[in-house]
Amino acid sequence: MRALLLIDIQNDFLPGGALAVPEGDAIIPVVNRLQQQFDLVVATQDWHPPQHKSFASQHADKNVFEVTDLNGLEQVLWPDHCVQGTPGAAFSVELEQQRIEAIFRKGTDPEVDSYSGFFDNGHRKSTGLGGYLRSKGITEVYLAGLAADYCVYFSAKDALAEGFKVYYLEDAVRAISAEGFDKAKADLRERGAQIIQSHA
Ligand code: VGL
Ligand code: ZN
User: Fold this and answer.
1) CA distances from 179 to 95, 148, 184, 185, 197 (A)
2) Can you tell me whether residue 90 is helix, strand or coil?
3) Which of 43, 88, 110, 165 could be cross-linked to 140 through a Cys-Cys bond (beta carbons 3.0 to 4.6 Å apart)?
């Protein structure tokens, strides 16, 4: 059985949002078309409390996009984004939501960031997504969403480690940086993921 994972298709990652991913909106018609072809559609939602420590605003002497240490983990400091309950944290109204059976929220602990839909960045706490997919008989996971070089990449990596066959839908993702996108694809390929186009 095959699942489509829609990663963080939220207003703050779309043009006009707080952490807009270039051309992020271009994936929406693609993922809307794709949903019909899957046994199961699941979404993740970046869902931070207002004082989340991944926000540069929570560090007096730091700038946005600076890298720091957060409780022993390397942390990029982001603009405030996807704050729980705000319009920026909502899914795009352009995204078809009728087929989404479950939504896994992440990034709720202010002390640790969570790029992957499966685990926080320290791999300490699971969201339950792996067990949920297995309980539904899913063996193959197809990833789409934002950002290709952060949350989609880390979700794909964890999906591989969880034993799923992984397909990274190259035309149904967009990245924060072009170099990050190339690195993410090369690393995933090496780990055994298939990088494919959605029409395949
Ligand atoms: C993301 C940075 C911070 C993502 C989430 O969804 O890729 N990136 N929080
Ligand atoms: Zn975030």
Assistant:
1) 27, 11, 9, 10, 19
2) coil
3) 165
Q: Using 50, 70 and 90 to split pLDDT, how confident is the model at 161?
A: very high
What are the chain's domains? 2-48+89-196 (3.40.50.850)
Catalytic residues: 8, 106, 151
Mean pLDDT throughout 97-113? 98
Q: For residue 189, how far is its CA from the centre of ligand 1 (angstroms)?
A: 21
Amino acid identity of 142? Y
- Ligand 1, atom nearest to 13 Cα: 6
How large is the average pLDDT for residues 87-101?
98
The neighbouring-strand residues paired with 169 are 196
pTM: 0.97
Residues 67, 59 contacting (CB under 8 angstroms):
no
